[in-house]
Amino acid sequence: MRIARRALLAASVATPAVAQAPRPIRLIVPFAPGGGSDTLARLLASALGTALGTSVVVENRAGAGSQIGAEAVMRSPPDGTTLLLGDTPLVTIPALQAAAGRPVPFEAAVDFTPIAALAAAPALIVVAQASPYRDTRDLLAAARAQPGAINFASGGVATSTHLMIELLQLRSGVRVTHVPYRGTGAAIQDLLSGQVQAMIQAMATAAPLITGGQMRVVGVAAERRMADLPDAPTLREQGIDLVSAFWWGALGPPGMPGPLVEALSTALQAAMASEAVASRLPALGLERLALGPAAFREMLAAETARWRDVVQTAGIKPE
């Protein structure tokens, strides 16, 4: 943690309020308590506070698919005391709002200060353990042979899992039937009972059902196989050029001074690398990203463009 403290001191001229008289930092989670973002934020907060020599308070600001919390951070002073733990919806909101005929509230790479990309969870294609489909090729072959026979559940229209289903269809050239639910819990129950044939999930949600023998992974949207799922093939291994993940990163309001951004990025990466955090990531199905401000900005721009294309091509309209 000494590295993070030295970096923060280096920013003292530009940011005396933070470096010389540390104030509590609010880490805004744009979702209700208890979800994956909230879990990661609370795990990170203690280690980040240690790295910076101040307290980090997690504040849940849920609503509008994370837009309310994100906009609260966007309007905050750029002094480093209010940060956002953003995730995938941050780059899908612009396209979805435009598709609904509403004003675009922000562009993540432009209207925030990217600080550090922290973690990612590869998207998993899952089926019930009793399913006859052993891999994604089998699943899509059935969809091709019998249009309408393969139903993919999601947590709702225009959610991240819905968009990933649409991306899968675009990359594979195979149509499946999207079945939206009001939340992931009901969708999982219908998957396990055989009412729907497949879902796209993150490891954090699927892990208990995978280890409990109720759910099986038939495809991983990653560059390589996951260490915890050595028998689950990647989609590229199955002839589908698709790499996609749920991700999390820290952002601040626009206009933050460069030295402060670098200091916070260093502290965040030190916190993620600490034993207290790093040892917990595998159980959450997360892998460290460790991208600094410039690389994170590029990632946000690329992800925004990618999901804009998916929304427009698939004709997705938010409810």
Describe the structure concisely for a colleague.
The chain is an alpha/beta fold. The chain is built from 13 helices and 11 strands.
Write the layout of secondary structure elements.
Elements: H1 2-10, H2 16-19, E1 25-29, H3 36-52, E2 56-60, H4 67-74, E3 82-87, H5 89-99, H6 108-111, E4 113-122, E5 124-128, H7 136-145, E6 151-154, H8 160-172, E7 177-180, H9 184-193, E8 198-201, H10 203-211, E9 215-220, E10 245-252, H11 258-273, H12 275-278, E11 287-291, H13 293-314
Parallel strand pairs: 1-2, 1-3, 6-7, 6-8
Antiparallel strand pairs: 3-10, 4-10, 4-11, 5-8, 5-9
Helix pairs in contact: 1-11, 3-11, 5-13, 8-13
Describe the structure in your own words.
With 319 residues, this protein is an alpha/beta fold. 43% of the residues lie in helices and 19% in strands. It has helices at residues 2-10, 16-19, 36-52, 67-74, 89-99, 108-111, 136-145, 160-172, 184-193, 203-211, 258-273, 275-278, 293-314, and strands at 25-29, 56-60, 82-87, 113-122, 124-128, 151-154, 177-180, 198-201, 215-220, 245-252, 287-291. The strands form 2 sheets. It has a 6-stranded mixed sheet, with helices on both faces. A 5-stranded mixed sheet has the order 7-6-8-5-9. The N and C termini lie far apart (46 Å).
